[in-house]
């Protein structure tokens, strides 16, 4: 008995020593819901955990672990789907889930067995990922599917990774709240949760290289560098959702790190094991969903501009007053270009009609 107790104590000491090095667990959560993902600024924002808590599987109330299959008589029984042979068939949009298609699909399936995110955060991610896919995805219209997928993977990791405590710390003493201006809406004194987030340099550079030449990134000076790009994601664009992130960069093993999709070749997504771990909406991006599509973003979008092995500082804080999204945006030039495109399209259309 003495020997058993001693072995148990040794194992516990080893576990505690490992936990002190890599704090597997969660430091941030959200237990409220903003309908339509419209922020209320004060009453419903993410909040800090008083202490590190263990991750949980994506199961139970609020989680949709199935998509379709519920019994039905008419399409009305299947909220965002159709009734086929008395069973609900949901829309294949990466958002709809639940047996009767009335819930939200799990957005970050890689972490479904052990996650720090709540079902409320899952719903917020669903709305945000839809916006990311629209703004940064689709190779044929000036986007890059690798970029959109990488961005979704970053947010899945920050919000849901069971190792959140390794790379995230609160920026201020508990509860780490502050009040900031939302530059996108002009509203002042917006309540936010301020966090320090550590990202690996290789991932950061890979993410930026896949996104820097997308159509949306080319219209603003704020997106011309890896820092500016992340600054917009974690600060300017996040204030309205009650978050404000200070990013730090390095190559320590505890920093958040995944292998980003390369915009010049992301053919690995053809592997079912790789595809199944991508965020639900990333799996449906045009060039990723189509097995025959070329897994490469447009030429010129894949020049490496960020070196993860450079001598730059491994501890970088983003600016409190970031470059405005509209800085460098020439509205007149853009309007002229689109007017010319519309005119040219009309000419082609009428020429086609007259043939």
Automatic annotation (TrEMBL):
One GO BP: sterol transport
CC annotations in GO: membrane
GO terms assigned for molecular function: sterol binding
Membrane-crossing segments per the record: 325-350
Top-rank taxon: Eukaryota
Record-linked Pfam families: NPC1_N
Signal sequence coordinates: 1-23
InterPro entries: NPC1_N
Stretches assigned to the Niemann-Pick C1 N-terminal domain: 72-308
Keywords: Membrane, Signal, Transmembrane, Transmembrane helix
Annotated PANTHER family: NPC INTRACELLULAR CHOLESTEROL TRANSPORTER 1
Protein name (database record): Niemann-Pick C1 N-terminal domain-containing protein
């Amino acid at each position: 008995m003495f020997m058993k107790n001693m072995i148990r104590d040794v194992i516990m000491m080893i576990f505690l020593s490992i936990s002190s090095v890599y704090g597997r667990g969660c430091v941030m959560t959200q237990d409220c819901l903003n309908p339509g993902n419209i922020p209320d600024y004060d009453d419903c924002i993410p909040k800090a955990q008083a202490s590190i808590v263990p991750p949980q599987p994506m199961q139970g109330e609020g989680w949709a672990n199935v998509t379709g299959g519920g019994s039905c008589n008419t399409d009305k029984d299947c909220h965002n789907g159709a009734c086929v042979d008395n069973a609900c068939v949901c829309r294949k949009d990466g958002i709809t889930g639940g047996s009767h298609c009335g819930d939200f699909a799990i957005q970050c399936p890689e972490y479904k067995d052990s996650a720090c995110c709540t079902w409320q955060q899952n719903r917020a991610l669903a709305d945000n990922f839809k916006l990311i896919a629209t703004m940064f995805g689709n190779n044929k219209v000036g986007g890059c599917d690798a970029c959109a997928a990488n961005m979704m993977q970053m947010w899945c990791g920050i919000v849901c990774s069971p190792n959140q405590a390794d790379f995230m710390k609160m920026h201020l003493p508990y509860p780490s709240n502050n009040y900031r201006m939302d530059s996108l809406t002009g509203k002042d004194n917006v309540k936010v949760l301020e966090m320090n987030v550590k990202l690996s340099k290789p991932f950061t550079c890979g993410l930026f290289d896949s996104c820097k030449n997308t159509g949306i990134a080319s219209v603003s000076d704020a997106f011309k560098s890896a820092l500016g790009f992340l600054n917009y994601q974690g600060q300017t664009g996040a204030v309205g959702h009650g978050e404000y992130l200070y990013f730090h960069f390095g190559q320590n093993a505890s920093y958040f790190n995944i292998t980003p999709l390369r915009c010049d070749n992301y053919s690995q997504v053809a592997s079912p094991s790789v595809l199944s771990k991508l965020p639900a909406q990333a799996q449906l991006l045009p060039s990723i969903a189509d097995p025959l599509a070329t897994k490469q973003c447009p030429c010129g979008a894949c020049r490496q501009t960020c070196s993860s092995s450079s001598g730059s500082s491994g501890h970088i804080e983003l600016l409190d007053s970031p470059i405005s999204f509209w800085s460098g945006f020439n509205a007149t030039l853009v309007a002229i270009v689109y007017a010319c495109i519309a005119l040219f399209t009309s000419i082609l259309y009428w020429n086609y009609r007259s043939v």
